[in-house]
Amino acid sequence: MNDPEAYPTIVALSSAPGRAGVAVIRLSGSRVRFVLETFAGVIPEPRRAALRQLRDADGEAIDQALVLFFPAPASFTGEDVAEFHVHGSRAVLARLLVVLTALPGVRLAEAGEFTRRAFEAGKLDLGAVEGLADLIDSETEWQRKQALRQMEGALGSFAAEWREALLQAMSLLAAELDFSDEGDVSGPLQEQALALAGTVLGSLRKALGSFAMGERVREGFVVVLAGPPNAGKSSLLNALAQRDVAIVSPVAGTTRDALEVRLDLAGLPVILIDTAGLRDSADPIEAEGVRRARNLLARADLALALRGIDSEPYQMDGETPVLRLATKSDLAGTPLPGELPISVKTGAGIPDLLAAIIERLHAFGRSEPALLTRERHRAAVADAIMALERAVSAEHGQGELLAEELRIAVLALERLVGRIDVEDVLDRLFSGFCIGK
Ligand SMILES: Nc1nc2c(ncn2[C@@H]2O[C@H](COP(=O)(O)OP(=O)(O)OP(=O)(O)O)[C@@H](O)[C@H]2O)c(=O)[nH]1
Ligand SMILES: [K+]
Ligand SMILES: [Mg+2]
């Protein structure tokens, strides 16, 4: 890790680009002390801010900066790390990055490279890296809480406990097998091993139960506005987004393309999608819009089925959970049983609608924050569960089979936290990171 060839010192703007009061430039690697001496004239006391004038090699001032030094190994990456807190001006940042990268052995960081080094130094496990990525992307309260817990290693510590228990079960089985010459004797040690596996199985099932919520909190709940033309779908989208996003008109068949807005509903991230009014149309463009609407509806987490209170009832089929709305409640008409009356014109019923949507979304899981948040997590835990289910249902006396299933479950848990098969996951993950992270 200290080899400057294999690990050049990396530098990047770690705060957001553009004009700002303060910007943070971060460096990591074996040349950090040299950089500090050269540009700041001093290596500050570890973790203490020092106000310094930064000067280039000719002694010309670049900016005043707060300078921080985090010596290896107690740093984010495990290497020597420095931060320059400078004025967030494009000219200061451009000049500083030019002079820093002009030094031999110093280059600009790639996306996620600081975090990759932290991972390689064992500072973060895969779950924590994923949590960090999610925290940076988080926009709502639920997303922030879930990501923070994951960044702090929740998944890693659960996985370590499960793995520990299964390894213990495996050693009990091995001891049992040593006592028997046929490898087919069931005894008290096997019973103990099975009990351990059963406990882990219960805990894994509980974690799996958190996935539906965890994934949706991470990616957003998909809520689709559906109903016949002119039911008021686009009007409702605009009202909920509090922006003029979609075209509204009295012409039936106005909306063709699906339009989406992101909402924060009591901390839950929602992707609200407006769609073409559902009807048989001879117009090929409108018909395509209706086809897309039906597809979106089929994979939505919740459908808002709209009917104008002055219009005919209509049938909406499919598996998607539905909340029924009678729109335009300011006009003459009566809501049908089960319909919530709303009016975009007067605002009547809109707070009730929001409360009803939030209530429906909570049906995906009430306990927060979730432990499993990505398909990758679900797949690994499901594999471990299947192996343990086979283990606990094995015939008595099949000690070797049992051990094999436990081994499969342990491997799945090692995949979960990135002990094995990690490269592909990392490449995909880091390509989505910002440059200075
Ligand atoms: N009185 C009244 N009119 C409304 C209300 N909401 C929508 N409208 C009117 O109903 C008409 C249709 O509204 P849209 O929002 O375009 O309906 P839509 O369901 O998106 O229609 P398509 O995109 O054609 O399927 C427009 O003239 C709206 O002004 C309401 O709450 N009260
Ligand atoms: K319309
Ligand atoms: Mg519309």
What do you see in this structure?
With 437 residues, the chain is an alpha/beta fold. It folds into three domains: 9-124, Gyrase A, domain 2 (2-Layer Sandwich); 132-210 and 371-417, tRNA modification GTPase MnmE domain 2 (Four Helix Bundle (Hemerythrin (Met), subunit A), Up-down Bundle), CATH 1.20.120; 218-364, 3-Layer(aba) Sandwich (Rossmann fold). 43% of the residues lie in helices and 17% in strands. It has 14 helices and twelve strands. A six-stranded mixed sheet has the order 3-4-5-2-1-6. A six-stranded mixed sheet has the order 8-9-7-10-11-12, with helices on both faces. A hairpin with a 2-residue loop joins strand 8 and strand 9. The chain is flat. It starts with 8 loop residues before the first strand and ends in a 6-residue tail after the last helix. The site of potassium ion (K) has 6 residues, from loops.
